[in-house]
Amino acid sequence: MVTTSRSAPSRPWRSASALPVRDAVAAPSAHETSTKRIPLSRVTPAVPGGEFRPKAFDGEVVPFGVTAFREGHDVIGVHVRLFAPSGDVSLHRLSALHDGFDRWRTQVALLEQGVWRFRFEAFGDDFATWEHAADLKIAAGVDAPLMRETGALLFERAVAEKSRPIAERRILEASAASLRDASATHVEALRIVRDPTIAGYFRARPLTSLVTIGDEHELLVERERAGVGAWYEFFPRSEGSRRLKDGTVKSGTFRTAMKRLPAVGALGFDVLYLPPIHPIGTINRKGPNNTLDPKPGDPGSPWAIGSAAGGHDAVHPELGTLADFRAFVRAARSENIEVALDLALQAAPDHPWVAEHPEWFTTLPDGSIAFAENPPKKYQDIYPINFDNDPTGFYAEALRIVKHWVAQGVAIFRVDNPHTKPLQFWEWLIRTVNAEHPDVVFLAEAFTRPRVMQGLAAAGFQQSYTYFTWRNTKEELEEFLTSVSHETSDFMRPNLFVNTPDILTEYLQFGGRAAYKVRAAIAATAAPVYGVYAGYELYENVARPGAEENIDNEKFEIKTRDWAGAEAQGDSLAPYLTRLNEIRRAHPALRQLRNLSVHWSDDDAILVYSKHLDAALSPTGRSDTILVIANVDPHSVRQTMVHLDTRIWGVEPGDAFDVEDLVTGARWTWTDHDFVKLDAFVEPVHILHIKGRE
Q: I want to staple 419 with a disulfide (CB 3.0 to 4.6 A). Which of 53, 172, 239, 446 is the partner?
């Protein structure tokens, strides 16, 4: 068995199940049939329907699975053969899950970007079949001589394989002789049958028959940022803004917003998402709180893109110039932050497109252009695009816009309402952009029906907003976290934003400060990508009456905030967010998506889950396990028993292990059944590092 680590950096994978690479030749078949000699089906990773490739990110641990079986009681084995984009070929042994459904599985960390190919290979495992039968029959004195001779013949067959190490062949040759030695007792023969060293030889280089080679599949591995990141969102016009003596607010600029970057970097965020930075329309401009009667000086919504000052390829004059934006991107990069830009394919009524390309919009029978609606919401300041009147023309313009911003240093786009545009368009745009710029990442902001969200992810979106903000109870969170980490993780990567300018849930409105801690802790630990919209750390929780969004919404006005003052008064969640991001950086288990396991508690408000990463799959060469226990009732003190499947991290039930709370520093010795008390008004969440016994 081969395990890779940092000592073998040339290998584009890490695995605990890697084998010496040997060619496989399919056994001949007397007849053409749809069914293979050893049936192979239900291959994973896969995308339902098979039209699109599954995907992973650089460094992600990918479970490879297949259903395989054969008739009778003979033992089979299954390998997966991986072909890296660079040409590296590796072979990995799958283990039977013994789940009653003939599933086989292994995990491999993939360390190279590009299109990987993989196929499953099943075979009759002749040694394992003999080992099982010989162990039973020799011990029972049934057909013992026959079993011994059969084993000797198998060992001679292995000795004849020149690819086996000489030392191994000598041991097998001696073992064959011992099995044939009439003076050797059956007890001595059983020692050979049960010898783990010999079994290891045949696991690494099995004696095969009925070799069956499955179909070849593809898997796209994208850069790490496509699947790992801590996002922060702010409006650059608010950063560095000033309230003047007459009560009006002077907009911030890219240069003033630049001064906020060190603080965002110190919080530990590595992606900064900017809402649209383009000129804002004046026709039908919205006033504060989405009103229809703006006053002079009201800035309007950044999503109402376009005016006489330009469209999607321009920046708002009050923010600065393109050169200022490029300077902002460079300054962010110096803080280890990538800038993500909003891509909102829509137009204000005075966008240049409206006059130059009226065919890109929908004209109503009365001659007016249809504005955007999301009942009961109306967006009189926005015209949606009609993608069917001139698809060739608009597709080309959308591609030009994306390439324009890529040229300015942007490699991440948060896409506004992609579910209101044709899926066919997104498949084309993302494929076309990524063919030239494979590092460009698209995040889908689509709060819509599950199949539509999944369709966008399958068609190419690297990340997706989710229903996380509305999943607040223990039961809801258990179901949601299981779904995103296991059921759709072959193609859909959740970005768990805790809030947005459009979303202030009742949980945050009425849950107090504990609610803000709970949601941030779960988002930061349950998925490798999560996000926070500015103001969250100030506990901004007052909603516009009748709406699930902040009053005096920043979409329609410039906000001035005293970040430093709030933190100095102990009135900021910033230190907690900083600690969460420190924990994420220090623990590679939290930078994986598919390794989440839900555990049990006796209290309906205590959520328990773990994330484990085996040493052989970890970039550090050490195993890493995080256990999260959250009181999701922000108004209470809860005490209960939690019940853990400790076998996930290699501890037998009943054995003790040490844990450290990474927030408070407290330490305990636990087993698989433990008492917890979580006071929502003190620390509502345990984030525990399982350390083993010291």
A: 446
Cβ-based neighbour number of residue 341 at 10 Å: 24
Q: How far is CA 437 from CA 226, 230, 410, 458, 647, in A?
A: 13, 22, 11, 19, 43
The answer to whether the CB of 208 falls within 8 A of the CB of 124 is yes
Name the residues annotated as catalytic: 416, 445
Q: Residue 86 has which token pair?
A: 């660079």
With vertex at residue 286, the alpha carbon angle to CA 282 and CA 289, rounded to the nearest 5 degrees, is 155
**Residue 694 or residue 322, greater confidence:** 322
| Beta bridge partner(s), residue 381 | none
- Does residue 690 contact residue 627 with C-beta atoms inside 8 Å? yes
Residue whose C-alpha is closest to residue 189's, from 177, 206, 205: 177
Asked if residue 436 lies in contact with residue 470, where contact means CB atoms within 8 angstroms, the answer is no
Indicate the pTM of the whole model: 0.96
How does residue 7 score in pLDDT terms, banded at 50, 70 and 90?
Answer: very low
Instruction: Kindly provide the b/e burial profile for residues 207-229, where b requires at least 16 CB atoms within 10 angstroms of the residue's own CB.
Output: bbebbbbbeebebbbbbbbbbbb
- Between CA 365 and CA 88 the distance in angstroms is 61
Handedness of CA 341, 346, 352, 357 (dihedral sign): positive
Instruction: Return contacts of 185-194, CB within 8 angstroms, 24+ apart.
Output: 186/138, 186/139, 186/141, 186/144, 189/134, 189/138, 189/144, 189/148, 189/151, 190/134, 190/135, 190/138, 190/139, 192/151, 193/131, 193/134, 193/135, 193/138, 193/151, 194/135
**Please, are residues 240 and 256 in contact by the beta-carbon 8 Å criterion?**
yes
453 contacts 415 by C-beta, under 8 angstroms: no
Pairwise CA distance, residues 277 & 252, whole Å: 12
> What pLDDT, in 10s, does the model give residues 361-420?
999 999 999 999 878 778 999 999 999 999 999 999 999 999 999 999 999 999 999 999
The CA distance from 438 to 192, in Å, is 53
Order of all β-strands in the sheet with 685-692 = 596-598, 606-613, 624-631, 685-692, 657-661, 667-670
Taking the C-alpha atoms of residue 462 and residue 450, their distance in angstroms, rounded to an integer, is 16
Of 204, 218, 212, 270, which is closest to residue 110 (Cα–Cα)? 218
Tokens found for residue 323: 């050169």
DSSP string, 286-311: -BGGGBS-PPTT----TTSB-BTTB-
Q: Which helix (H) or strand (E) holds 689?
A: strand 685-692
DSSP string, 629-687: EEE--TT-EEEEEEE--GGGGT--TT--EEEEETTT--EEEE-SEEEEEEETTTB-EEE
Q: Cis ω on the peptide bond leading into residue 45 (within 30° of 0)?
A: yes
Tell me, what's the pLDDT at 693? 61
What pLDDT score does 59 carry?
A: 98
**Cis omega before residue 296 (within 30°)?**
no
| pLDDT over threshold 90, residue 444 | yes
SS3 536: helix
Long-range contacts of the stretch 331-336 (C-beta < 8 A, 24+): 331/258, 331/261, 332/261, 332/272, 333/409, 335/261, 335/262, 335/264, 335/265, 336/265, 336/270
| CA 541 – CA 512 distance, rounded (Å) | 8
368-371's contacts with Cβ under 8 Å and 24+ in sequence apart are: 371/284
Q: Are 494 and 466 in contact (CB under 8 A)?
A: yes
Kindly state the tokens that stand for 247: 């009560």
